[in-house]
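Why does residue order matter? Because the sequence determines the fold. Keep that principle in mind as you read this record.
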Amino acid sequence: MRKIEKLVVCGVGLIGGSVALALRQARLVERVVGIGRRPGPLAEARQLGVIDEISTNWAEALDGADMVLLAMPVGQMEAVAQAMAPHLGPNTIVTDAGSTKRDVIEAIYRHLGAHLVQVVPAHPIAGAEKSGPSAARADLYRGRKVVVTPLPENAPEAVLRVRELWAACGAVLHEMSPQEHDRVFAAVSHLPHLLAFGLVHDLAGRANAEQLFSYAASGFRDFTRVAGSHPEMWRDICVANRHSLVAELDAYLSELAYLRALLLAGDGPALEAVFDEASRARNEWADKAFPATPSGE
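Structure:
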């Protein structure tokens, strides 16, 4: 990968900050400029060495920029694309890290239509329940999937540069269409987050919430870990991908209705059959996705 002389990161928290740190560690970026809505996270990011400079406007930020990473919540994409448009030169590559793609791409077409050759959407499949610049780490993307969803108008060189950016962070690259992306992640990412938020919200609102949480252990911790995630970010994701997400939620509600019927009937053998099938599917996936590390390594 050619060294990036000037990288602009919009959204300097976990996702954007981790890209900056990974490229610094690889010595593939000369200068990182942060831009965002709030001065607090930007100042923190500079203090922590995640970014070198803070920019207060897009004209200044984009001046001489080689690459821009849009890592803010997807709900901000419309305003950010509109603000960038008048100042984006022909030699600056733009990518994003949004967890949804249809809404991001619609904003790109509306506001960056003159720059479609150089705006390449993507989505890193990595994150944590913690957010902000202090959560950023250089190894966040190492061995993790990044899905690139190129536009038909993208120049091959721009797509290559974006792929190189993520590969330099240690990611494993994949490509799919924006429509397929949103359907897939509604099922395996957005729905689990919605369920975790919903369960914790339900228990927290009960009169005996303190008692319930006092007895919650590792199973509850593991199931609800993602409910500690950034509320604004997940609000935007759920709203943006609501059509696919509602379809997945309806399918899950049907599964819950089936389980409820088995419980009412006291049908232990049928419940065990469901649990056995689910257990085998989950373990097969986990063994492939997270292979055991050989002893001594």
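The beta strands are 4-10, 29-35, 53-54, 67-70, 93-96, 119-120, 122-124, 145-148, 172-175.
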